[in-house]
Amino acid sequence: MAKKSREQWGSKIGFILAAAGSTVGLGNIWRFSYVAGNEGGAAFVLIYLGVIFFFGYPLLCTEIAIGRTTQKNPVGAFKALAPNSPWWLVGALSVLTSFFILSYYSVIAGWSLSYTFKALLGAFTPGADFAGLFVGHISQIWEPIIWHAVFMLITLTIIGAGVVNGIQRVSKVLMPLLFILLILLVVRGLTLDGAGAGIDFYLSPDFSKVDGGTFSAALGQAFYTLSLGMAIMITYGSYLNKEDNIGDSSRMVIGLDTMVAILAGLAIFPAVFAFGFEPNSGPGLAFITLPAVFASMPLGAFFGFLFFLLLSIAALTSTISLLEPSVSYLIDEKGWERKTASLVVGTAIFLVGIPASLGYSVLSDVSFLGLDLLDSYDFITNAVFLPIGGLLTSIFAGYVWGSKNAAQELNTPPGKFAFGKWYEMLLKYIIPAAILVVLFVGLYAQIVG
Fold it and tell me: Whole-angstrom Cα distance, residue 56 to residue 219?
């Protein structure tokens, strides 16, 4: 039987929007804002931008290059570049990482989708107990699971439609809509009385608050938001043709991703300060603090609805990309049909995510290193699997595939920015060293701290 030809992106902009959709998610709008709040605002933002340029950009290009040069899923890509060796396990680890991240990411995305409807139905009223509303939602058994299921059903429906008809088509609609909603929220936040304090916090650096943890948080956030070590960019790169320069496309992806993160801060911090709330309220910023902020402002229910619709759309563009590596693996390596692979993998991910959802109700007594189940999923994948995957990928590209081969792929065709000695130095020495520091700092802080 003749082998099926591999799907490819229908256009360069299709790839850019899909890849940007992967990077733009809860990590930009929710996680970036509360990490910036915890790490001192503008000083963290500047360090984060430096980390994105020196570490995130080269590693993002490298992962896309591995996918494009082999035209295979992550497991097949490592097998092709290092045959008869155990390096394929790095691809398997990255696929497994995206699988587990999606299992709990979909639970949080379900919360966001639920809050979209809560805002629409008038739950955001002045004086409401928003902490009680949030705890009441996540501590139920069935409601969070149902929303988790709804989000996974939407995701696997899009993936089942294919690369062009599913991922690319939806990304072309969702990404512009996301920017429109975000700009509306920014305009509203900046026009509130007292918004200036939030702007100062966000845009005026205070380097006295910078310590080793700030750099660790910036690198961890860069990995999280750029989908590095998750098999996504290798998979998306495998659908990219040889006529597009990877470096040029990657800069546009990073530009869109960073723009959303910066705009999210401009939407959130002015509003938070305008109504006297704390900017460093952690994950509760999205589901407790911001609903209280929306309830305090004119047309708050409408803007609350817009925010959680925005959060849900951002989550969806990421859940699509998180599901694709596992589906691509089954299609390439096992010969499955796309719809069958999507259904089986999507169902498995949904089932694995159920304990994370129940960790706030019937499984609330279960913990790992003092963390509840959902936070345990997050810690294991983001603090352990992601940096290990990124470290091994950089070592593989630098020494096994070869930094010169990687640079040659990135310079084909020639782009505006040539990959030379600077890239090889980063790939072989600086990036692995930086990842090792983040890995040990994160583990030490959780285990000892």
Answer: 8
pLDDT tens digits for range 357-391: 999 999 999 988 788 999 899 888 887 898 899 99
Instruction: Show Cβ contacts of residue 54 under 8 Å, excluding neighbours closer than 6 positions.
Output: 426, 430
Q: Is residue 3 assigned to a domain?
A: no
Domain with 130, as residue range(s), is 12-447
Query: How confident is the model over 154-181, as a mean pLDDT?
Result: 86
Average pLDDT estimate for 16-27:
84
Q: In this structure, what CATH number is given to the domain that contains residue 53?
A: 1.10.4160.10
Number of domains in the chain: 1
Q: Cα–Cα distance between 11 and 1 in angstroms, integer? A: 29
Token representation of residue 113: 């989708």
Instruction: Please report which helix (H) or strand (E) contains residue 306, including its range.
Output: helix 300-334
pLDDT band, residue 351 (cuts 50/70/90): very high
Phi, psi torsion values for 336, nearest 5 degrees: -75, 155
CA torsion angle 269 270 271 272 (round to 10): 50
In angstroms, what CA-CA distances link 276 with 273, 343, 353?
A: 5, 46, 36
Task: Tell me how crowded residue 196 is: count the other CB atoms within 10 A of its CB.
Answer: 13
